Amino acid sequence: MFRRSAVILLLLCLMASLSLAMNEAVAAMPPRQATPTMEHSTDDEHAGEHGGRIDAGDASIRIVAPEDGATIQGGRVQVQVETSNFPLGEGRHWHLYVDGKERGMSQGSSDTMAAADLEPGEHVIEAVLSTGEHQELDATDSVTIRVEAVAETAPMASDNSSLLVGGIVVAVLVLAGVAYTIARRS
Question: What residues have CB less than 8 Å from 165, skipping those under 6 apart?
Answer without folding.
Answer: 17, 20, 21, 24
